[in-house]
Amino acid sequence: MQDLISKLPTVSTNIFSVMSQLATTHNALNLSQGFPNFETSPTLIRLVSEAMQNGYNQYAPMAGLLPLREIISKKTASLYQRNYNPEEEITITSGATQAIFTIIAAFIRQNDEVILLKPAYDCYEPTIELFGGKPVPVQLNGPDFSVNWDEVASKITKKTKMLIINTPHNPTGTTLQKKDMLRLEQILKDTNILLLSDEVYEHIVFDNKSHQSAALFPHLAERSFITASFGKTFHTTGWKMGYCLAPKELMKEFRKVHQFNVFCSNHPMQHALTTYLKTPENYTSLPEFFQKKRDLFLSLLKDSKFTFTPASGTYFQLLNYRNITDESDVTFAKKLTIEHKIASIPVSVFNMNQQDDKLLRFCFAKTDDALQKAAEILCNI
């Protein structure tokens, strides 16, 4: 057998798997990977079970159940004042990551350039490279992780095919504001550049602020794919269910790849989600729910040596440990897991050139008991 040549030679096991495995090995409290440690709604579980018992166990339609797409269309119109045709502009996906992969696969060719903001969710760059594209990173700078839009504009060339944004932002817990979206709209207005807007934490925004979806801005929406996650919204990350919104002509190309990627997504879960989404409180209550957890976690850390700016969205909180050690964030994260029995994610792995700002990401989508235990550990460091 001839020697294999990897298409992703620099890619290894991702940091989420590494830290979760380390947490398991050392019996550490796992605040690293972004999943809740509490149960999802019993109502939603019952609805899935009923759908299975009612025989919805074979393939769903390729684009997803039409009633589910219809309720998503109504939800999007209510929240963001933009109408997406449920038959031609909405597709149900096997999680947001599958949607992101499919978007990039459908449009990125050899030597196409894709601008992305770093730190960035770790699926973007390998997927771009897999299809011969070139990631063009722009580093966000702390402590507020604001976007230098002039730098973004300066990165645009005749080869630029796509720009990727993520708001609310993983891993920093920051959010893009209306002024950011208007500036981005101005930058892209007279170009043919596509926008991939990763909005999986759309319902987790704090301090009475509103999520600034690309759907709210006409000149962005007309060129945008918007990805969303039922897993993040309804505490069911293991179900891998999400959806994608895009104008008709863009979605047509998306579905060409989607049908050969997964063809369709989980059938009984689509029936359950159709019913569950008919009660808006199931997602509109999330800001208050998670803000209480954020505020509890930070109040318990007020006397620790860690410093922080409260997250404005997502269920991730960055903690700065400069007052504790000069060790690299990867080294310190592993030490915390092994010696102090608490796991986090070092942020440098998402930055350009592994820029180390002495920041660790902690997931606060945990029970209050788990957050209190975590804070007790961290306050003793």
Automatic annotation (TrEMBL):
Residues 28-377 form the Aminotransferase class I/classII large domain. CDD domains: AAT_like. GO terms for molecular function: transaminase activity. Keywords: Aminotransferase, Pyridoxal phosphate, Transferase. Its cofactor is pyridoxal 5'-phosphate. Pfam families: Aminotran_1_2. SUPFAM superfamilies: PLP-dependent transferases. NCBIfam families: PRK09082.1, PRK12414.1. This is Methionine aminotransferase. It comes from Aquimarina hainanensis.
